[in-house]
Design brief:
The complex is a heterodimer. Chain A is mainly beta. Chain A contains no helices and twelve strands. Chain A has strands spanning 3-5, 10-14, 19-21, 24-26, 32-38, 44-50, 56-58, 64-68, 73-78, 87-94, 102-103, 107-112. Chain A is globular, with a radius of gyration of 13 Å. In chain A, 35% of the residues are buried. By secondary structure, chain B is mostly beta strands. Classes of the chains: A mainly beta, B mainly beta.
C-alpha cells in the first residue's frame, strides 16, 4: 500500500532564510507526487507535482521539489521564505492504477521576523 | 468565479441530527471527492465519484451518504450525527480520476455538540 511520511510536524524559519520540508513515500513503482499548501481557514492549493522526466520540478510561489528515487524522497524547497508562506504543507502520493491520493500528516511552517 | 464551492462554511449541530453539505464545481471536471480533516490536520478520503458514479468508498459509517445529481455536484448527507463527526470536510474535484491534481473547496467546519 502506498504511504507518505512527513517527519517534521512543525518547522520554524526566519523570514528570508531557506526552507526544506521533507517527504518520504513508500511504493514499489514510481509514484505520482504532489505538494499542497493549506493556509488557515482555506482549502488546499497545489504547489507542484512530479509525474516523470526531470526530477527537479518548479512550482508556484517560488517553490521547487526534487524527486530522489534512491531515497524515496520528494523534498520541498524554497531559497528565501516570505511571511506569507506560513501555512500547513502536505505531501501526497497516488500510485499508478490506484485512484486514491494519500496525504502525509502535514508540516506546519511558522515564519519569524 | 469560485472553482469549487461548498456550503455551509460552518455547521454547528447537536448529536443525533441529520445534516447536509453541498458542493459544486464549475471547472468541468469529471471527478469529485469528499475528504475529512481531523483536529490533527490529517486528511482522509471518504468518497470519490467519477461522472456521477461512485468509485471510491472508504471505510466510512453508512450514516454518511454522498449523492451526485450531476458531475458538477457532490453533496454529503450525514445521519444521526455523533461527536466524533466533528471535523473539517473538504470537497475537491479533478479533471480525471487517477493522477490529475485536485482542486479543493474551502472546507466546512462541522461541530457536533
Amino acid at each position: 500500500a502506498q504511504s507518505v511520511t512527513q517527519p517534521d510536524i512543525h518547522i520554524t524559519v526566519s523570514e528570508g532564510a531557506s526552507l526544506e520540508l521533507r517527504c518520504n513515500y513508500s511504493y514499489g513503482a514510481t509514484p505520482y507526487l504532489f505538494w499542497y499548501v493549506q493556509s488557515p481557514g482555506q482549502g488546499l492549493q497545489l504547489l507542484l507535482k512530479y509525474f516523470s522526466g526531470d526530477t527537479l520540478v518548479q512550482g508556484i510561489k517560488g517553490f521547487e521539489a526534487e524527486f530522489k528515487r534512491s531515497q524515496s524522497s520528494f523534498n520541498l524547497r524554497k531559497p528565501s521564505v516570505h511571511w506569507s508562506d506560513a501555512a500547513e504543507y502536505f505531501c501526497a502520493v497516488v500510485s499508478f492504477g490506484n485512484e486514491k491520493l494519500t496525504f502525509g500528516t502535514g508540516t506546519r511552517l511558522t515564519i519569524i521576523p | 468565479d469560485t472553482a469549487v464551492s461548498q456550503t455551509p462554511k460552518y455547521l454547528v449541530t447537536q448529536m443525533g441530527n441529520d445534516k447536509s453539505i453541498k458542493c459544486e464545481q464549475n471547472l468541468g471536471h469529471d471527478t469529485m471527492y469528499w475528504y475529512k480533516q481531523d483536529s490533527k490536520k490529517f486528511l482522509k478520503i471518504m468518497f470519490s465519484y467519477n461522472n456521477k458514479e461512485l468509485i471510491i468508498n472508504e471505510t466510512v459509517p453508512n450514516r454518511f451518504s454522498p449523492k451526485s445529481p450531476d458531475k458538477a455536484h457532490l453533496n454529503l448527507h450525514i445521519n444521526s450525527l455523533e461527536l466524533g463527526d466533528s471535523a473539517v470536510y473538504f470537497c475537491a474535484s479533478s479533471q480525471h480520476q487517477g493522477n490529475s491534481p485536485l482542486h479543493f473547496g474551502n472546507g466546512t467546519r462541522l461541530t457536533v455538540t
